[in-house]
Amino acid sequence: ELSKTTASVLLLEGADDVTQGATKGNSGIVHAGYDDKPGSVRAKFCWPGNQMFPQLDAELHFGFEKCGSLVVARGKDDEKILNELMERGRENGVKNLRIVQRTELREMEPFINEDATCALFSPDAGNIIPYEYAIALCENAVDNGVELRIRRVVKKITKDPDGIFTIEVGHWEPTEELLTGMSKWKKYLPYLLGILFVANSFHFYEYGQTMLGTLMNVLITLGLTSLFASKSGKDIKPSRFTPSKGTDLDGFTEIEKIRTRYIVNSAGCQSDYIAEMLGDKSFKIKPRMGEYILLHKNQGHKTRHILFPAPHPFLGKGVLVQKTLWGNLILGPTARDTLQKNKKTGEYEINPKVRDEPNDNILSFILGKCKNLVPDLDAAEVIHTFSGARAKNTREDWIIEPCPTEKNVIYAAGIDSPGIAGSPAIAVEVCRLLKQAGAPISEMDPAFNPNRAPIVVPKDGWRGIKAGPVGKYTNPKENVICKCEKVTEAEVIEACRRSLPIDSTQAIRKRTRAGMGHCQGDPDNYGCEARVVEIIARERRMNPKDVGTRPWPASSMLSERFIKEKEKKKFEDLASKNYQGPL
Fold first, then answer.
1. pLDDT, tens digit, for every residue of 432-455?
2. At what angle do helices 528-540 and 489-497 cross, to 10 degrees?
3. Sheet hosting strand 29-30, strand order edge to edge
């Protein structure tokens, strides 16, 4: 929404890509809004945001499927909950809700548990690939003039007597790039009437499973204009970064200072840290970890809708079964609160039970819950597991309002599920609040282009594309780089030449799906990651050794990166155990 104006906006991203926090670790569901408490901030934005997705997808081509959702009852108690949900949905303005009975439910979902008695059907619910959504938003923003700076961690915020904020950020790089050409653009003077977008200014948690952040990193960046920072001299120090479990990067940090009159705090699980820098301690983020299991596409036909159990009164919507936009079956998430309040001190601290929960317990729990919905799913067909942290907060609702200590700071903070669904409507509200604060966003940009072309081209089987040894096929449009997902060299090249910075195979993986298939980039199969490294190095004029590769284990709960028969047998055993412990 801001990009439609002539405002100068800078987006700061703490990670090495715009999709490295909760953006890459969630269900990707565009909820309808029947589950939210009437009168809550969630209820205010979920349904209106849901209704904006078809148009957004038509413009940005990130992929949206309105597949509908079913909340499944397995008895009289669950049926009462369904009726309560339908009434709550009506209060929230949600349309088209209805209860489907057993016979119709079996027609809609042939693989549903025979114990299912009825379900609440919401035809307006849908799904997306969340990182593809975020990339599309941010790419369109940069195409329309925004300046994006990745690897920027906010350290300090101060304000001078003239009302101008100075944001001190640490710019980190895993190579010696900072020592060479990274500062060539620093000659530009700052535009003092800018709007700074603080996104994903992260700290790494002790348990280190993900670089925490939320999809709000990009919600309001639908094409922004640039803001340059002034900087005197260099302050570069050797540093070590641990962006995820098992990944340690040696590099350098350079301190930058940015001046601006307005700030949007959309830092996800770190939004309370940003608030404290502004003198506001009115809320605390309590990250809630959610783990997922991804199954082979040969399991995708076992559901046609998003399947939920009747929700838990405290732990949310429950463990679901869902077919992804690309045809896999996704199972999860858990809802494990990583922090607990110390009754003596009143402070929040790491919850050791959550931190130390064995992975096998987590996996068994997810599989057991999902088999209650779809008994015939094959646990041996697992190809990947991952996790993400939701930005739960002590106020128990989204925080979309001006900062109480600084009127020129707007919060889009503490946004957990159903944040994706509400995101477009939240963007409109943040713009309204900025305008109310006096931000110069009234003038519309006549050059704004709302459209963005897709990167991935749908394939007609193997027609027109060829897989073979490196170098055998030289036509980029024919040459397949990832055999599982049929990704061509042309698509990887296209991603590299788009407006967002790319220097890792993970970035290409999320834009083209190279390495996302059932072999997960196994070098003994086709070696797609090595092929992608060579293309990135060629296109970005990098040394191949400086191209970032997929970290391991990161947030995975697998015992080995490339699944073999032993691991598949283990998942079958875990599914039969149906762990119901402290989770």
1. 999 999 999 999 999 999 999 999
2. 40
3. 29-30, 126-128, 64-65
